[in-house]
Design goal:
It contains eleven helices and 13 strands. It is an alpha/beta fold. It has two domains: 121 residues, ATPase, nucleotide binding domain (Nucleotidyltransferase, domain 5); 171 residues, conserved archaeal protein q6m145 (Nucleotidyltransferase, domain 5), CATH 3.30.420.190. It has a six-stranded mixed beta sheet with strand order 3-2-1-4-5-6. Strands 9-8-7-12-13 form a five-stranded mixed beta sheet, with helices on both faces. A two-stranded antiparallel ribbon has the order 10-11. Helix 6 crosses helix 8 and helix 7 packs across helix 8. The protein is globular and about 60 Å long.
Length: 315
């Protein structure tokens, strides 16, 4: 049994050898089947979650769900898909949309029943009160946005001007351009939060993934060449972005924690170690190793295995 999480930008696979993250943007005719076929060895089957159905290459979510289900089934004909009802399905149904976070909650709720989970990856931050699993069933991403359980900011793909409208450069308040000149990955690379090997998405300019290149991209946020504002000016842009991102994520986690009377915070995803330090929480990497970087894929595999074992015991 392997676990698969099909996101809009990344395809994550978990098997007995570890977690495997493939950059696979659905809006660029992503070869899902081709990536999965090497994992389809012998009688291996797959448990699947998704969030990529929202990619704007699809007319609507159901078209995206059907595309993903069909692509996965070409490699794994007997694949089963986890839905927001907390159950597995054999084919495409509306409830498969954005159920990956619920699989994580389903797996962790018995291990950390009084915790709030923050899963912060390349694109989003999921904030999940595990003690309220029953209330989470059926929630769409729209409802999660409304409840503060989903923030569209992440470690790699967030455009800098989505969080900041201006920056202070040498004491001068400077509005930023809203062009996609630099991403959160550029800020985190410059600040040492990630390494070049962690910059797994495309860069905004499709050029190299290095600190000098990231500094150049950050300078363009204020319509400047790096030589105009210097490395310190570009680094200041990164710092000010991070200050806003950190506050937004940490404040919302604390709000959900207070609302649910929960004091324990556990953190997974690309930003696990960084935000665990900021929140005084538990880095799930210490418990799950690299599987924490692909938590929904790992979780859906474990939930499927538990469901199968329970079904077999009933017989």
């Amino acid at each position: 049994m392997i676990g698969i999480d099909v996101g809009g930008a990344n395809l994550k696979v978990v098997d007995d050898t570890g977690a495997h993250i493939h950059y696979c943007p659905l809006w660029e005719q992503a070869p899902i089947t081709g990536i999965l076929e090497p994992y389809a060895q012998g009688d291996c089957n797959a448990a699947v979650v998704m969030s990529g159905e929202l990619a704007d290459c699809f007319h609507d979510k159901m078209q995206g769900i059907s595309f993903i289900v069909n692509a996965v089934k070409k490699a794994f004909p007997k694949a089963r898909f986890y839905g927001t009802d907390g159950s597995f399905h054999d084919g495409a149904v509306p409830g498969l949309a954005a159920a990956n976070w619920l699989a994580s909650a389903d797996y962790l709720r018995s291990r950390h029943p009084a915790a709030v989970l923050l899963d912060i990856g390349s694109t989003t931050a999921d904030i999940i009160p595990l003690a309220r699993f029953t209330d989470l069933l059926g929630l769409t991403d729209t409802r999660r946005l409304q409840k503060g359980y989903l923030l569209y900011t992440g470690m790699l793909r967030t455009s800098i001007p989505t969080l900041i409208r201006s920056v202070n450069l040498n004491g001068i308040e400077t509005p930023v351009s809203t062009e996609y000149f630099a991403a959160s990955a550029d800020a985190h690379l410059v600040l040492g939060h990630i390494g070049p090997e962690d910059y797994t998405c495309d860069t905004p300019d499709r050029k190299e993934k290095s600190i000098p290149a990231s500094l150049r991209r950050l300078a363009r946020v204020v319509c400047a060449d790096l030589e105009e504002i210097g490395e310190e000016g570009a680094t200041d842009i990164a710092r000010q972005f991070w200050e806003v991102q950190r506050a937004r994520v940490c404040d919302q986690v604390k709000k959900v924690s207070n609302e649910t009377g929960t004091r324990k915070i556990i953190v997974a995803g690309t930003g696990a170690s960084l935000f665990a330090r900021e929140l005084g929480g538990i880095d799930l990497t210490e418990e799950l190793g690299h599987y924490a970087d692909a938590l929904p894929a790992f979780a859906v595999r474990e939930v499927a295995a538990g469901t199968r074992a329970l079904s077999e015991s009933d017989h």
